[in-house]
Design a protein that fits this description.
Layout lengths: L6 E10 L5 E9 L2 E6 L5 E4 L3 H13 L4 E5 L1 H27 L1
Antiparallel strand pairs: 1-2, 1-5, 2-3, 3-4
């Protein structure tokens, strides 16, 4: 039912360790909380803010990853797109009212 839809993966941090192995840390949004989860070792952390800092700290601290790339997932663009559309609609509405009045 609703359980499976409670979380959206909105970002992934992908980096390579010194042995060339790829490590992926996912950022999931659950309601207002953000969960950072490592696919390599199963480590997870709840963070209200700055999931990027938490993810990068885990990658460098636990997997010796020097630098990680952020990937946006479809869920991220879906959320971002919806907010952008809403803002655009409000601005358009304000402009039309301003011109008409
Ligand atoms: Zn890990």
């Amino acid at each position: 039912m609703v359980g499976e839809r409670m979380s959206d993966t909105v970002g992934r941090f992908v980096g390579r360790g010194p042995d060339g192995r790829e490590h992926v840390v996912r950022v999931e949004v659950r309601g207002r909380a953000q969960l950072v989860a490592c696919e390599t070792c199963g480590w997870r952390s709840n963070t209200p803010l700055a999931p990027r800092r938490v993810a990068l700290r885990h990658l460098s601290g636990s997997h010796a990853v020097a630098s990680a790339e952020r990937e946006r997932t479809p869920a991220f663009w879906f959320r971002t797109g919806l907010s952008a559309l809403l803002v655009a609609a409000i601005l358009l509405f304000a402009a039309v009212r301003g011109a008409g009045g």
